[in-house]
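Collagen-binding protein, peptidoglycan linked protein (LPXTG motif)
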Amino acid sequence: MARLRKLFAILLVFLGGIFSTQIVSADTVNITVSNTKLTPEKIGYKQSTEFSFDFAVPESAKEGDTTILSLPNELNFQRIASFDVYSDDGQVVAKAVADTSTKKLTLTYTNYVDKNNDTTGKMTFNVVVDSDVVKSAQDVSATLMVNTTDPSAGIVIGSGTIHYLGPVGEPDTLNFWKYGITSAKNTITYFISINTARENVSDVVIADVIKSPGLEYVEGSFKISEGDFVKNDLNYWVLQNRSDVTANYNVELSNDKTSFKVNLGNISRGFSISYRVKANYNLVGGERVENYASYSSGTTQKGEDKEVTGYQDASGSANGYNYSLGIKKVNEEGVALAGAEFTVIRKATGQVVGTLTTGVDGTATIAGLLRDEYILREVTPPSGYVAGADVVVNPADFDSTSKIASKTIVNKKKPSEPAKVVLKATKILEGRALADQEFEFKLIDKAKREVIDTVKNDATGLVSFKELTFNAPGNYTYTVNEVNGGAEGIQYDSVEYDVTVTVTDAGNGQLVAIVDKDESVVKFTNKYTPTPVKATLEVTKVLSGRPLKNGEFNFVLKDENGAVVETVQNDKDGKVKFSELLFKKADTYNYTIVELNDGKVNVTYDDLEVKVKVTISDNGKGKLIATVEYPQDAEFNNKYVEPTTTTTTTTTTTTTTEEPTTTTSETTTTTEEPTTTTSETTTTTEEPTTTTSETTTTTEEPTTTTSETTTTTSEEPPVKPKRVLPSTGDTSTIWTTLLGLAILLASGLGFYFHKKKV
């Protein structure tokens, strides 16, 4: 039983160990500080000095632990900042945060301290004398307290004493000035003060120009204030009763954002203008940034100020232009070479900061550099030698103690005769003939990224660049590409070729150059595709005999092979219009337009064939042009004929003669009322005979004869003319006949009654 209790107790302890939670808390770590430096020891109002020292972190430190560094009350950090603290091997040991309100710098350690023992590094930051605490010139203690605020426990930095010159104030006559301060990473804020004397000044213009390369104004950062300048207790001008008047003025910023001007107009009070300037590269601690401002009234210059501001990085470090670069020039045998001339170029800005010329010992030195990246470019090699390639100097090349970077540069002897080559390419254009000097090509030095030559093709498509001369063995690579000229209808070839020229010394005083790609390989093929063009074919339709109807007749468009392209109908106005034809290639196209005979009754169709020629020409500039040619006759004429009918006409003729009336067999004599029928057509053939409908001939004895005459169209065989008595030449209508009878009857009756009375 005792054994079971013992095992149970052991099990509880074991399980407790498994399920227990270990709470790790951050600790405060004391670091060891050594090799302290104070640079400079003498500073003025708002000027800074640099604290630098080596540090060692104890092995007990772990990720998340902190160390708090405190400044004495008389000092402060220049600005609130966050930055990394590095070990001697370049790794981030801790994250640092400087707080100007508490005058404390807090280090929070990374996991680097968990992975490494004996962690050491170097720390640098800048401090200023707190002008709110120290009002006049005096010596200030330069100490730093680690995890305490007790000044007596402070670590002495450098000599331990800062000789503070105190505020010197500003002249009463100062009427225009500017200054700048580091306000953020790669950013400087400037302040311009105008008209401390509160003069009445007309037509005031403030102009400003950034003199350092790689910087530009931050849009939206401009602020203009108006107020009254007064001296404070430190004898410095300050703007009181200020009001923000930014909205009342227009800041005219240049396109490249490196200059501006603002017209304040007529003023009688003080003005302050603030704005930010930001670099497009990483500024180095202590780097000088130049800015120029001017103050004018009309054409009168009233003031100007050139401000040189030293940038301070996040740690407050401002080592500045305290670094040097030394070179030694030798040949391949190690013999010193004199007379080699170099330019020193700051890579961040592309600015030439100085030159070097080697002496008899082959050495040269340039001072006043920032701890930054530089390019050493040999512009004049020693006599009999070839200029070497560019040499890059990195920030890490500068020794942190001596602040010197050293480079040994070897020159090769110059061959007796240089090698020369001409790089070539081939131009191909698909879709039309290539023109001389039509396309442009560039030859680029790939290493220097410089355009060496720009040429155009000849009529055969050959592209030849200028002759290249090589004075030293090596590999030289060039990029060949075509310039996209944006010509209409051209699809450019975007391929780029890297052509390497290998130069070797043949050992006989002659350099030999071999090109790895010639014009048979370096080819650029463009495609020419002009914009398609449309053409519409039309003819006219005419119908005689009756009005034309919309869509009445069909017309067929055929290509030159006889294939039907389209069938359309006329409109009511006789227009026959086919759909648009699309042409993508310059050529001659022949079409035929015919009318489809669909057998409409009483219509005679026109068998006309209209031959149309469409000529498509290319203007060579990406556009096709269509020309349509019609024959003289492009009109289809159909005829409509009304259907023919046959009618029978009865003609009443009264003939009076002394002899009996003789009629032909085609004549019928009627004694009753005459029947009259008009005839539409009268046809006369062979012998001339006059046939008169409703003709009255008067003789002594009236005889009524009715004859039937058959009239036919001209399409029937002619009818033999009837034989009649000679015509008297007198004709009248039936109404004339009736009138005559009435008069005769009236005369008879009158004669009768007259005789009866007698």
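thats it. Confidence is low (pLDDT under 50) at residues 1-23, 648-732. The two ends are 197 Å apart (CA to CA). bye
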